[in-house]
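Q: what sequence does this backbone want?
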């Protein structure tokens, strides 16, 4: 370093590191706001400004987007203003926004749709915490309720930390499933047990093991009831999580994994039919249809995992082949033979330990290209449920976006150009809002960097960055590293200022916790949060 020069300060990255030292974590980090020498917040979203919300997935982004675009929303006081909004993908078709990467088209002939088209009733049972996955994603990103489809949404506990109640409301889910089994009109019952995934994102090993044990207990209850009623049970999962809780160096990995997931077929009437190996989540729907005696649509490129002829089912059932099926998704239950760092193996799971010894079983790929994600990437609940229900491989939004960055079409995207040209023409500011992560299913800092480069190319004069932290699948304190990367990129481009940051717990909600969304809205519009003094970068 030359005499007389100072080491560069990265204001927001340093503020995040200070928050870590004060005991805060990424997920629930209190808002940080960059201020000038007079204490005035910098980069607040104001009337006429343009916002690009670059997150993926979308179900957790709807509420915050609505707070800026829905004039009739009355959950909390808001400033009367018009904000021009762009979302990376379609979060909800009813939002008043422009969409950069709209859906490629409706997904037809999913497992639930096929069952409904044959006049069969079906039940879905899930906690509110995972309801969107069993309804919207399993149905092929279709929001409507199908004919003959009954949804039993069991309320999740209203707590800020699920490690306090790792059991969640799994017992309520189990009760509702047992009631559905007792109703012979249901040809297909689909259930999601959320505990392993939801609590597996924490750093509390005892809570995770309690969550896993809870799932195992409910599986035991449900299987027992199904066996009494002559219902065939498939036990599987959408992705892995707590079975690989450590990185190789011993650091805690709170994210999803690329592990395979179980597939267990429980039905004494089937005998020991053989299951093929090497399957993936897209093979589940064809297998269910095979068991139910329903034809597989041509668009389903997956194939049944059952190699043998299925014996005739006893009479008195409601499907063409005489089999009612219970599809049980143990969310986040990955399979890994190694016991080190394997909290699923460390938990008390007598049911899931015993079933493979007596029932046909195999393992399914649930990550990477098998679920339309980049090679080597981990699985997630959205892709998992989409492939379970769809019976075919779908190219993920992440792959579509990354391919567009690589071929340059990203920088000609009409929605992005509309926002950038509008901000430049109107003398307004452009705000880039979204997750600050590399691995998150909600988005990537690489997409943010591409937007910054595009804004520089288009000559946008004022660009402000508002980030959300959430360490899922990231190493400890990685949030500060990514924030500094963005500050460095903005400095290199000579454009963009990282002006505010918040934990994703407050901003990415999907259960109408409007107090959290109000906090996020006030963070963005009024600059409410812990002040971070803007320093001199010379």
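A:
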């Amino acid at each position: 370093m030359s005499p007389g020069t100072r080491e560069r300060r990265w204001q927001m990255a340093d503020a995040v590191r200070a928050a870590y030292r004060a005991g805060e974590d990424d997920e629930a980090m209190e808002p940080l706001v960059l201020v000038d020498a007079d204490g005035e917040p910098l980069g607040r979203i104001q009337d006429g400004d343009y916002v690009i919300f670059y997150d993926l997935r979308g179900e957790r982004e709807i509420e915050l987007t609505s707070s800026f675009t829905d004039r009739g929303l009355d959950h909390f006081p808001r400033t009367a203003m018009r904000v021009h909004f762009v979302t990376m993908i379609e979060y909800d078709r009813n939002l008043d926004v422009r969409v950069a990467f709209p859906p490629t088209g409706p997904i037809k002939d999913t497992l639930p749709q096929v069952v409904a088209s044959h006049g069969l009733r079906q039940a879905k049972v899930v906690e509110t915490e995972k309801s969107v996955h069993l309804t919207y994603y399993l149905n092929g990103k279709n929001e409507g309720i199908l004919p003959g489809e009954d949804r039993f949404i069991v309320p999740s506990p209203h707590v800020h930390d699920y490690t306090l109640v790792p059991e969640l409301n799994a017992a309520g889910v189990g009760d509702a499933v047992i009631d559905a089994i007792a109703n012979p009109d249901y040809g297909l019952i689909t259930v999601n047990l959320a505990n392993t995934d939801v609590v597996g994102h924490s750093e509390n090993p005892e809570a995770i093991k309690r969550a896993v044990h809870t799932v195992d207990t409910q599986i035991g209850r449900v299987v027992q009831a199904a066996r009494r009623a002559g219902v065939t049970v498939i036990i599987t999962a959408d992705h892995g999580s707590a079975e690989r809780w450590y990185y190789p160096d011993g650091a805690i990995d709170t994210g999803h994994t690329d592990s395979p997931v179980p597939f267990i077929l429980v039905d004494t009437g089937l005998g020991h039919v053989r299951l093929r190996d090497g399957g993936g989540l897209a093979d589940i729907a064809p297998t269910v249809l095979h068991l139910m005696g329903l034809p597989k649509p041509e668009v389903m490129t997956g194939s049944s995992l059952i190699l043998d002829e299925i014996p005739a089912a006893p009479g008195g059932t409601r499907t063409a082949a005489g089999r009612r099926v219970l599809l049980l998704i143990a969310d986040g239950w990955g399979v890994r033979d190694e016991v080190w760092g394997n909290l699923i193996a460390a938990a008390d799971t007598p049911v899931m330990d015993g079933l493979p010894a007596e029932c046909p079983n195999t393992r399914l790929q649930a990550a990477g290209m098998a679920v339309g994600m980049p090679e080597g990437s981990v699985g997630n609940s959205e892709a998992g449920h989409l492939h379970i229900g769809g019976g075919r491989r779908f190219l993920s939004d992440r792959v579509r976006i990354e391919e567009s960055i690589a071929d340059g079409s990203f920088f000609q995207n009409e929605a992005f150009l509309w926002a950038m040209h509008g901000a430049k023409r109107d003398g307004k500011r452009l705000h880039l809002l979204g997750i600050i992560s590399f691995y998150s299913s909600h988005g990537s800092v690489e997409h943010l960097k591409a937007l910054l480069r595009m804004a520089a190319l288009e000559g946008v004069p004022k660009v402000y960055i508002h980030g959300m932290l959430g360490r899922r699948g990231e190493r400890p304190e990685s949030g500060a590293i990514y924030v500094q990367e963005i500050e460095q990129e903005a400095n290199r481009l000579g454009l963009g200022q990282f002006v505010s940051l918040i934990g994703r717990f407050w901003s990415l909600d999907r259960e109408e916790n409007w107090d959290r969304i109000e906090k996020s809205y006030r963070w963005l519009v009024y600059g409410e949060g812990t002040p971070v003094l803007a320093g001199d970068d010379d």
